[in-house]
Amino acid sequence: MFLIQGGFVMRKGKTRSLLTLVLGMTVLLSACGTESGGNAATNAAGAAGGNSASPEEKVQIKYWYAYGDKTEEAKQELVKRFNESQDKIEVVAEYQGNYNDLHAKVQAAFAANDAPAVSDLEISSTGTFARYGMITDLTALAEQDKDQLQMDDFNPGLMGNAYVDGKLYGLPFMRSTPIMYMNVTMLEEAGLDPAGPKTWDEFEEYGKVLKAKGKTAMTMPADIWYYEGLVAQSGGQVLTDDGKAGLFNSPEGVAPVEFWKKLASQGIIKIPVGDEAGATADKDWANQASAFRFGSTAGVAGAIEISKGNNFEFTTAFMPANKSYGVPTGGCQLVITSKLSDEEKAAAWEFLKFMTTTESTTYQSKHTGYLPTRISALESEELQSLYKEYPQYKVAVDQLAYARPRPMETAYPEVAKIVKSAIEKTLLDPKVSVQDAMDEANEKANALLSK
Length: 451
Hints:
By secondary structure, the protein is an alpha/beta fold. Helices cover 48% and strands 14% of the residues. Helix 1 packs across helix 4 (99-111), helix 10 (224-233) crosses helix 11 and helix 19 packs antiparallel against helix 20.
């Protein structure tokens, strides 16, 4: 039986009614908020530089973040470094689950006037949070500190989701693309080229050989993030240029689902569903039940440990191409919530700048596998040495040449759920036409996008 999971970066698990209620409350509350970005910009240096608080009167702010394991380790370490770097601000970092959990909690806390000052924000949700007035426009702050911040040092391929309606709302933090993880040992044992498949057709041929050897090519949740990549590889996009309509039922939008359905029906890939689908895919790859998996570049450091512990060799590669290569970006940026005091906003801005320095970027990229968001970090001797020793880290950096930002229309989180449901439907039921399912999904998407 085939199933599907919400995916690495998609919002999932919360009802639409709750989201609508919370967002509706935030619209009302935002009109009463204390939005004073200009004063915060003026006071930023004072809050961290010694003019507004004594060591006994630290400004305390909360930072809410998503995901555990090595990602959490890196975030906690960076918070520790920031707190030790000065004596005016204390950041309290608190884990809130996955992105979906985090977003729901921030929305609820914002409605209750108790939101954290700083939060991770998955990139495709930036438009929603910005347009509902939940996060601060950082444009004036960035301009004020342009010499220190050096915005042009951020990788241009990762900036597409930082701006909403021409205004800066987030600084790139732990950013990613999906890449393909390959068990080299399994491929060699099956007599296959360990360089791996470069195209969809080659992937299918690899899968047939592995199946004949009693192996599964890939266990893969039917993830919207991956779907966006395969649409790009087919020469298409998921929304029209103005974001007012979906293109999920276009030939390029249908092609990935047809491909998945074909491979699943042949027993070449396994598509689990449910909340544990992603964990199932990871487990199958770690236990060498499947040779390939799609996953975030953030998993490279963990995969190195897994491969050593389970005694197999692995490498990473671009997601295989159809008409061309193509991949969405993902991960999070750091944002400052609105309705803060000037003092809190100034402290939050100092924290954002610290967390995105070259040094911080280099550390978290090396510790996790997330992309280096700054060019200076990418070019640093530390990361260049890492890439020579572990070329698996470098693949996602090279793949950025084919990267696209994720849609940020306010309705897109709900649209993504509709499309995901349609993909599940056609994969679970052999009788369901892919074109019919995507036609229906696109009609529902258009009703939301056109509002």
